[in-house]
Specification:
Elements: H1 9-31, H2 37-44, H3 52-75, H4 77-97, H5 110-139, H6 142-173, E1 176-178, E2 181-183, H7 188-191, H8 193-207, H9 221-240, H10 250-272, H11 286-316, H12 321-349, H13 353-370, H14 379-405, H15 413-453, H16 464-476, H17 478-485, H18 488-524
Antiparallel strand pairs: 1-2
Helix pairs in contact: 1-5, 1-6, 1-8, 3-4, 3-5, 3-9, 3-15, 4-5, 4-8, 5-6, 5-15, 6-12, 6-14, 9-10, 9-15, 11-12, 11-14, 11-15, 11-18, 12-14, 13-14, 13-18, 14-15, 15-18, 16-17
Length: about 550
Amino acid sequence: MNEPHVYSDDERRLTLISVLIVFLLAAMSQTVIATAMPRIVGDLSGLHLYAWATTAYLLASTVMVPIWGKLGDLYGRKTILLSGIGLFLAGSWLCGLAGEFGDLPLIGGGMTQLIAFRALQGAGGGALFTTAFAILADLFAPRERAKFSGLFGSVFGVSSIFGPVVGGFLTDHGTTVIAGHLVAGWRWVFFFNVPFALAAVAMIGWKMPTLPHRGGGRIDWLGSALVIAAFVPLLLAITWGGQDHPWGSPLILGMLAWSAAALVGFLLVERRARDPILPLELFRNRTFVTANSAAFVYSMAFMGVSSFLPLYMQVGQGLPATTSGFTMLALMGGFVVSSTVNGQLVTRTGHFKPFMVGGGALLVIGATLLCFIGPDTSTADLAWRLAIFGVGLGPGQSLFSLAVQNTVPFHQIGVATSSGQFTRQIGSTMGVALFGALLTAGLASELDRHAAADPSAQVQRLDLGDLQKMALDRTLHPEEAAARAADPAAQAVDRAIRESFSTAIRYGLIFSLAVLVAGFFLMLMVPGVPLRERPTGPPPVGEPRAAE
């Protein structure tokens, strides 16, 4: 009879701490750069490449998630986690050095160097996310795991709160002189990762136990290549469509067609592969399908709201970036508290479904309340609506993964966990793109209406890049904003933009509400299977088992 290995409390505690550290670093690497980007762009001279510093990380992280998950099943979490940390460390260090040595062969100048090294950092970051949750599944029974999943959800929320604060502080106050060489403060945003990651590596190497895994498998190279071939152009098309290129342009349509063809090829290959990247039999698991579908939909809504509400406050209400950041703390604070409390309650009761459904209902209520904001909404009024939204969001972020892990066999824990993370990241990208498309369409309509009513408020068509530049200019050039405030004609234009933006954002918020309602019904379809009280066992008899 196959019995699960019993790990000591010391092994589990130190492993949990080390995994939490790397998870926090991976989460913060997505948020810490936001407040540093204006200074980075100024130093490296690449305003036209502004968005790519984030896009490169997300692309690499997303497409590598299913590959890392499968490799963890084959070769062990410890090996894959250390490999991911190594890539993440290398990427972080090189990002901090971007532009220090002038133009480099093949890579080019400082901004293109940063983009390339951010992609390397993202490739490693993908391993940290998916392996962290898979290690939890190896060490803790599903019922006990719930409270730790809630803790990881809280870490993600904390990173969203403190990442921009840390990035801004290091950028503004971190400039130092070392051995006569000036080190700009924004470079410490990347160097900051290094000592913590090295500490985690030491703890993992010293105390993380050997975890059972399948071994004996082969890497599905063709499947891995097709994952990248299918989803890189898809994500780029979603990101560029409606902003850099029209949705109907040959480039966007060609990329979508290429993605569809590669996806069909991927499914055909996976049907015949001995060790597929994504075993298609998982789609016969009702929990796997419904939980991941709901997670996909919820990620669409969450990222749309969290990405554009700060822009609404800065452009639609004329608030400074600092105020908008503090207002968003209400959302993340509600998320952190809810995620932690619900994790504890799920562990205590052994049932996740009531808390998942309750959170989903509260999330729909929060989204409904956000649909009624406008140009005159106060920060306090917006904050309590965001707090309700955040409290409703908390349970879903961790419980979807827990539900899936509770119903899949041991040898598919890694790939099942990574599939959930993968669908979330795809959903997040699509949510931002669709929300942004609705926002810009609504903004164009509202600006035309204002221009017809007041010819002095004539404004050229604005896209998301223009809006982001407006918010950035207010931060970098406050003297220009002061000059516009003294010009009646400029004031009329600014008022038209603020009122139009505040109305247009409701298009995106209504879309998010509709998506969340659909997600709520998907959530109701997730089977409420009681959580197991014993850890996941080793592979069944006949399956190969190897030590790390």
